[in-house]
Amino acid sequence: MQTTESMLITIKEKLHSAGYKLTPQREATIKILLEKETEHMSAEEIYLAVKKKNSDIGLATVYRTLEILSEMEVVNKISFDDGLVRYDLKQEGDRHFHHHLLCLKCGGIEEIFEDLLETVEQDVEKRFNFQIKDHRLTFHGICKKCQ
Length: 147
Prior knowledge:
By secondary structure, this protein is of the alpha+beta class. The chain has two domains: 93 residues, Arc Repressor Mutant, subunit A; 52 residues, Ferric-uptake regulator, C-terminal dimerisarion domain (Dna Ligase, domain 1), CATH 3.30.1490. It is built from five helices and six strands, in the order ααβααββββαβ. It has a three-stranded antiparallel beta sheet. Strands 5-4-6 form a three-stranded mixed beta sheet, with no helix packed on it. Helix 1 crosses helix 2 and helix 3 packs across helix 4.
């Protein structure tokens, strides 16, 4: 697992390779994503967290940064039952988007990092002649705390 600093360097290199600079506003946004990587934050939540540390940033800048990071596959956009688009850092070396457990009572989200669908993917590719690039799986249920 990479450290926050090494992940920041990796993201900076990816931005540079794609022709983008790591502006102070982009860096502040990325640092919040790194600091709160398990929180599945919306753009507005990320903006509010960044604004506390860097009052010189606008919501549109955060949205643009998240869009760039999404296009570069640094973050994944995810939607749960609340209708908000949330952002989830893609872990270095992950072949696929990781899975989630969504509690229907408290709204809590837990992550599953094992690839539970590898054999299912192989079967789908073979049976339907379909080249799979990624998959997303969210289990809906009741967490330990709410049971």
